[in-house]
Amino acid sequence: MGPGAAAKYGAVAVIVRSLTSALDDYPHTGNTNYGNNPKIPAAAISTIAANKLSELLKSKVAQPVQFYLKDNCQMLPDVLSYNVVGEIKGTENNNKYITIGGHLDSWDLAEGAHDDGTGVMQSAEVLRIFKALSYKPKNNIRAVFFMNEENGHKGGTKYAELAAQNHENHIAAIETDEGGFTPRGFSFDGVNPALVQKVNVQWKKLLEPYEVDHLIPGGSGTDIEPLKSQVPSVILIGFRPDSQRYFDIHHTPNDIFENVNKRELELGAASIASLVYLIDQHGLSL
Amino acid sequence: MGPGAAAKYGAVAVIVRSLTSALDDYPHTGNTNYGNNPKIPAAAISTIAANKLSELLKSKVAQPVQFYLKDNCQMLPDVLSYNVVGEIKGTENNNKYITIGGHLDSWDLAEGAHDDGTGVMQSAEVLRIFKALSYKPKNNIRAVFFMNEENGHKGGTKYAELAAQNHENHIAAIETDEGGFTPRGFSFDGVNPALVQKVNVQWKKLLEPYEVDHLIPGGSGTDIEPLKSQVPSVILIGFRPDSQRYFDIHHTPNDIFENVNKRELELGAASIASLVYLIDQHGLSL
Question: For labelling alongside A229, which of A124, B231, B235, B249 has CA 20 to 30 A away?
Answer without folding.
Answer: A124
